[in-house]
Amino acid sequence: MRASNNLIQSDPAILMGKPVVAGTRITVELILEKLAAGESIEQVLEEHPRLSRDSVLAAIAFASEALRADVVYPVRDTA
Asked: How far is CA 48 from CA 27, 36, 39, 42, 51, in A?
């Protein structure tokens, strides 16, 4: 995986290897959760001044690349 120009890193010594924005302990997961909850990129940047627009976009790109893997994710029927 390309890791979006080294802006996203995974190190077993940092948060058990969860992908984070380089130089922070801010996870890709947290960024995606905030965006999925309806926060704008600008709101995420205001809450986390150590992030840049490029790092938020890198987190999105990282997630997109991860989901391209040849894995089937079952979806539960909630109806």
From this structure: 11, 16, 12, 10, 6
Q: What is the pLDDT along the chain (79 residues), one digit of tens a residue?
A: 444 578 999 999 999 999 999 999 999 999 999 999 999 999 999 999 999 999 999 999 999 988 887 666 677 776 6
For every residue of 5-73, which 3-state class applies, written as one string?
Answer: CCCEECCCCCHHHCCEECCCCCEHHHHHHHHHCCCCHHHHHHHCCCCCHHHHHHHHHHHHHHHCCCCCC
Q: Is 57 contained in some domain?
A: yes
**pTM, 2 dp:** 0.81
The residue type found at 73 is Y
Domain residue limits at 56: 8-67
